[in-house]
Amino acid sequence: MALPTYAGPLERSWYYAFRIICAAIFVFLIAPILIIIPLSFNAEPYFTFTRAMLTFDPDGYSLRWYEDFWNSTSWMASIRNSFIIAIGATIVSTSLGTLAALGLSRSHMPFRAAIMGVLISPMIVPLIISAAGMFFFYSKINMAQTYLGIILAHAALGTPFVVITVTATLSGFDHSLTRAAASLGADPTTTFFKVTMPLILPGVISGALFAFITSFDEVVIVLFLAGVEQRTIPREMWSGIRESISPTILAVASILIAISVLLLLSLELLRRRNERLRGIVES
Amino acid sequence: MAPVEVIGEVTGESAGRPADPAALRRALRRSERRRQLWAFGLTLPLLGFLVAVFVVPIAGMLKLSVANSELATAMPAATEALRAWDGTGDDGGVPPEAVVAAFATDLEKARAARALAPVAQRLNNAFAGDRTLLQGTARNLPEAPDGSWTATLEALDPAWGEPRIWQSLKRAAAPWTDLYLLQALDLQRDATDAIAPVSADRAIYRNVLLRTFWISFLVTLFCFVIGYPLAYKLSTLPPRLANPLMILVLLPFWTSLLVRSAAWIVVLQREGPINESLLWLGVIAEPVQLVFNRAGVLIAMTHIMLPFMILPLVSVMRSIPKSHMQAAIGLGASPLEAFFKVFLPQTRPGIGAGCLLVFIISIGYYITPALIGGAADQMISYFVAFFTLETVNWGMAGALGSLLLVATLLLYLVYARLVGLDRLRLG
């Protein structure tokens, strides 16, 4: 959309005004997240740029909030909990979700729309409702405040993402490949692991990443179901923001931002790999 | 035997005679059914899992909104007597002595078994003050009636001589109740059992519902106004520029909600960067309150929902050929006219998808308003959490949750009609 040479002054000024508007929107999107990172190196216990920071005085910056985070037993316990719960939930939702996607992508699937509706419902129902429902249910069967309870709840939330990404990958899948494998003497299990799985792996991995981040970020279910033992990173941040906001939160937030950048980049690489495997030329 | 039959069929075919078409159809149907079963079997583990940990709990919550088992559990004999009572009595509305006696006897039993608390809570949910009435009466109840039980109870507290408490008890004895669903809409049953609005000082939930929809509407509007130009820009840029910029849109999407909420609290606070820069620029003389109020909620929620608006818009806009606008301009339309008459109408599916998605996610939102809003900015989800975790009034939590669930599902139905659930994209 370069500006044509015959553009009048009105068009010209609108063209630049529009650019400025878009730049401002990008600033609105990104700035609040990025501003956290320099503030987390603040040497003072404030949430604002001190004079020393603005003049780039090295004394204005420090790693004290990162040290604080590193030396806090509750933060360290929350990291452990977050990983236990997110990895457990990812394993459950990825294996069940991939199986279901394989079934859904077959042309012989009966009641496809109805089943799809049930399978993606955890994504549709507001979290607060899932959390309250599970809270009542788990207190009745004595599963509240257990790791297993939270892992299963998070796995349920993650499955729609796995089902959707793997189904999307399978939609471009050439089924004659599995028939070829079968005609060459491979049994269904061998065919699955040697032919189908390597081809749909990018979709499975991006589904697993979605499931992981869903659990890793989730706080509403944890608020309802977790006891002191099972507090995760978002749960600690929740109390940190509500009760005693200290810049340690900004240090944790910066680390989480770094993790999400890494995840985003790996997803982008997976998407490109998937397109290459399926022979889609980048447009 | 079987191999022989197969050979027979094959030789029959090779000899030019057609195979039995009915048998062929049967075999085909059998194999079709086997494939269907196989496909269904693959989805079965996930279906079973979701039913167990997701569908059953939510159905349980829906049931809680009409559940009424407190009295029946703690005072079974009284419940039976109250159910059998037709609701009329000699003294205007006080039940006959037999029912009152059954109630008094059961009250003493429940007190001795320490099972009275749920009943007291249930009565208090319907009428504030009934907890004290019931527990005070139970504490002072004599072993034998002083004359009649009716007179004894009335001597303990004159409220027992009024029809209202007995109507309340009769309603608490029913198998189901509409108490919570009515309360969620600021309605109640009066002494004559007719549905009437609650008094103005107790009416809060309609206000909360309206506020939930109003905040969600504003967030949707802001997202559209901000997201549309950006999506347009993104869709017209060459991929070399658009892809990195798209990552900038996706980064907030992938950043933890808690991180984004914390970021907004830091940015918007009284000593935060926004206030400091505005003060420095001389735009304001005093720091403005931007956080823990409605403005903060709207700003932070718009920021959080924006990717849900931008992504469907971009995907629709990318599918519109550039030549359409060029043709319109070439045919004499002004750029503005070309945009409104040619481009905008074609983006309608994206607008519908983005706006519906943002609105649906907004009405169920909990974290951001709870952290960034004040008391007057809390939406329906806050009250679901409040009744579940703080004042253990599960009936009310269930009723508000059910209302929210119904609203969400209805909106998704519209979404499925308009966009199709298959097109629910994740960025």
Going by CATH, what is the homologous superfamily of the largest domain in chain B?
A: MetI-like
Could you name the CATH class of one domain in chain A?
Answer: Mainly Alpha
* Radius of gyration of chain A, in angstroms, nearest whole number: 24 Å
- Specify the CATH architecture of one domain in chain A: Orthogonal Bundle
CATH topology heading of the largest domain in chain B? MetI-like fold
Number of contiguous helices of chain B = 21
Cα gyration radius of chain B (Å): 33 Å
Describe this structure in words.
- The complex is a heterodimer of chains A (283) and B (427).
- Chain A has twelve helices and no strands.
- With 283 residues, chain A is mainly α.
- Chain A has a domain at 76-245: MetI-like (MetI-like fold, Orthogonal Bundle), CATH 1.10.3720.10.
- In chain A, helix 3 packs across helix 12 (248-277).
- Chain A starts with 8 loop residues before the first helix and ends in a 6-residue tail after the last helix.
- Chain B is mainly alpha-helical.
- Chain B has three domains: 2-64, no CATH class; 70-177, no CATH class; 207-423, MetI-like (MetI-like fold, Orthogonal Bundle).
- Chain B is 72% helix and 1% strand.
- Chain B is built from 21 helices and two strands.
- Chain B has helices spanning 2-14, 21-64, 70-74, 76-84, 97-112, 117-126, 130-140, 149-156, 163-173, 179-184, 205-236, 239-254, 257-268, 273-281, 294-318, 322-330, 335-346, 348-363, 367-372, 380-390, 394-418; strands at 187-189, 195-197.
- In chain B, strand 1 and strand 2 form a beta hairpin.
- In chain B, helix 2 packs across helix 21 (394-418) and helix 6 (117-126) runs antiparallel to helix 7.
- The interface between A and B is large, with 93 and 86 residues.
Question: What's the structural blueprint in terms of helices and strands?
Answer:
The complex is a heterodimer of chains A (283) and B (427).
Chain A (H helix, E strand, L loop, with lengths): L8 H31 L11 H4 L9 H8 L1 H32 L7 H13 L2 H14 L6 H25 L4 H8 L4 H30 L2 H6 L7 H10 L5 H30 L6
Chain B lengths: L1 H13 L6 H44 L5 H5 L1 H9 L12 H16 L4 H10 L3 H11 L8 H8 L6 H11 L5 H6 L2 E3 L5 E3 L7 H32 L2 H16 L2 H12 L4 H9 L12 H25 L3 H9 L4 H12 L1 H16 L3 H6 L7 H11 L3 H25 L9
Antiparallel strand pairs in B: 1-2
